[in-house]
């Protein structure tokens, strides 16, 4: 696979590949939802190309670039040389006003992205660009098609959920999945699960919000460019877990630099139960952002490999619904889980 953006998320993924591959007793390493998925293990995932624009990353081996500033994902393990050097791609809208002093654009020449993808034999491209990089993400999606690669869109940018893009990948006979990866211990999933549990027990939730603050570069980019879109994606996803309408707000609020790669999510729920008695709930979830993507990404990468082997094309709904906040079709967590399990086992 090829990496677009060697930021915090990429750091957690690359380190995780080493972490889960280096132990002879990999079953004893906790933290992965699926050690084996569709017959594939983490050691079957290989990074063969990478692109970024930051001077501290371009020209470096991926194993070094993942620890370069401004990345602040925690170090989990030493990573050996991958012999994959980070190439420079076009900047386009990759850098916003708020991040222009944090990302140092390199003066290296731009490389020929589609050609590198082809020569590296990449089967899929993983989009980990900042959420504000809409044009850059779309440009790379086009390059993926030219190079014959599947496209995995982890960013909250509408590609897999956009019917026109899905059609383009269908015509190119390539799989497309996205948009906006669901975290392993994610605020959206936890929020939906809590609402579901309360509703199942007869509670009528009337109002609820979930807001978060984080300290990664991505939180700063969100503050400037994608707060609104994230609020739409998360709110719609949470609303879909309630079988009735209620006042729901879910989104990100701010960037707190000293949190580093940590994220604090706040939940508030109000409802009524038996005899109109009222209940309220206040919760705080503290997580580290980048590792929160690792387990789900490993599942997605292996599932896309399965899709490639089955020669599937266009938006692959079971993968999108299982692993992304904005799939082409919104459904309950339970339905998405079942659909994904049937997809992996080949029953669907
Ligand atoms: N848990 C998670 O981390 C998580 C969950 C869901 C979605 N996501 C999404 O994944 C994406 C990556 O998150 P992150 O925390 O790694 O962000 P990040 O800011 O740490 O990394 C982004 C990287 O992209 C590079 N970049 C910017 N413009 C570029 C361009 N034009 N070409 C190539 N590289 C470019 C930057 O230099 C940086 O290295 C974001 O869109 C985020 O919303 C992350």
Report on the structure:
This protein is α/β, with parallel strands linked by helices and 348 residues long. 36% of the residues lie in helices and 19% in strands. It has 10 helices and 11 strands. Strands 3-2-1-4-5-6-11 form a 7-stranded parallel β-sheet, sandwiched between helices. Helix 3 packs across helix 4 and helix 6 packs parallel to helix 7. Bound molecules: nicotinamide-adenine-dinucleotide. The site of nicotinamide-adenine-dinucleotide has 37 residues, from helix 1, strand 2, helix 7 and helix 8.
Distance between the termini: 26 Å
Strand content: 15-25%
Strand order of the biggest β-sheet: 3-2-1-4-5-6-11
Q: Please tell me the overall pLDDT.
A: 95
**Distinct small molecules:** nicotinamide-adenine-dinucleotide
The biggest sheet amounts to:
7 strands, parallel
Helix content: 25-40%
Radius of gyration (Å):
20 Å
The sequence of SSEs as H and E is: EHEHEHEHEHEHEHEEEHEHH
Q: Provide the low-confidence segments as ranges.
A: none
The best one-word shape is globular
Quick rundown:
The protein is an alpha/beta fold and 348 residues long.
Topology of this protein?
Elements lengths: L1 E3 L3 H14 L27 E4 L9 H4 L20 E3 L24 H8 L3 E4 L6 H14 L2 E4 L9 H9 L3 E3 L9 H14 L3 E11 L2 H23 L7 E9 L6 E12 L3 E12 L2 H19 L4 E2 L1 H7 L9 H13 L3
The site of nicotinamide-adenine-dinucleotide has 37 residues, from helix 1, strand 2, helix 7 and helix 8.
Summary keywords:
348 residues, binds nicotinamide-adenine-dinucleotide, 10 helices, four-stranded mixed beta sheet, 36% helix, seven-stranded parallel beta sheet, alpha/beta
């Amino acid at each position: 696979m090829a990496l677009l953006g060697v930021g915090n998320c990429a750091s957690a993924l690359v380190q995780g590949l080493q972490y889960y591959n280096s132990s002879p007793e990999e079953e004893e390493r906790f933290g992965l939802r699926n050690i084996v998925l569709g017959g594939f293990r983490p050691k079957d995932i290989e990074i063969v190309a990478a692109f970024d624009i930051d001077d501290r990353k371009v020209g470096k081996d991926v194993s070094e670039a993942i620890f370069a500033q401004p990345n602040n994902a925690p170090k989990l393990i030493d990573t050996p040389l991958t012999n994959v050097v980070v190439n420079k791609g076009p900047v386009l809208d990759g850098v916003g006003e708020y991040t222009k002093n944090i990302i140092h654009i390199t003066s290296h020449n731009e490389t020929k992205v589609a050609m590198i993808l082809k020569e590296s034999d990449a089967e899929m491209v993983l989009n980990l660009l900042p959420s504000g990089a809409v044009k850059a993400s779309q440009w790379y999606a086009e390059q993926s098609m030219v190079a014959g690669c599947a496209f995995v869109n982890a960013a909250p940018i509408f590609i897999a959920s956009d019917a026109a893009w899905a059609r383009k990948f269908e015509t190119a006979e390539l799989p497309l999945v996205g948009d906006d990866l669901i975290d392993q211990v994610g605020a959206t999933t936890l929020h939906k699960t809590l609402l579901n549990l309360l509703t199942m027990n007869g509670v009528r939730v009337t109002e609820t919000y979930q807001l978060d603050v984080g300290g990664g570069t991505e939180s700063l980019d969100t503050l400037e460019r994608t707060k609104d879109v994230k609020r739409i994606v998360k709110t719609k996803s949470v609303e879909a877990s309630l079988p009735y309408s209620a006042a729901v707000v879910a989104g990100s609020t701010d960037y707190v630099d000293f949190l580093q790669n940590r994220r604090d999510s706040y939940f508030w729920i109000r409802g009524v139960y038996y005899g109109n008695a009222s209940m309220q709930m206040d919760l705080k979830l503290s997580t580290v952002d980048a590792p929160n993507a690792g387990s789900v990404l490993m599942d997605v990468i292996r599932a896309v490999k399965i899709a490639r082997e089955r020669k599937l094309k266009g938006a692959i709904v079971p993968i999108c619904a299982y692993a992304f906040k904005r799939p082409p079709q919104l459904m309950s967590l339970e339905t998405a889980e079942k659909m994904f399990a049937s997809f992996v086992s080949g029953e669907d």
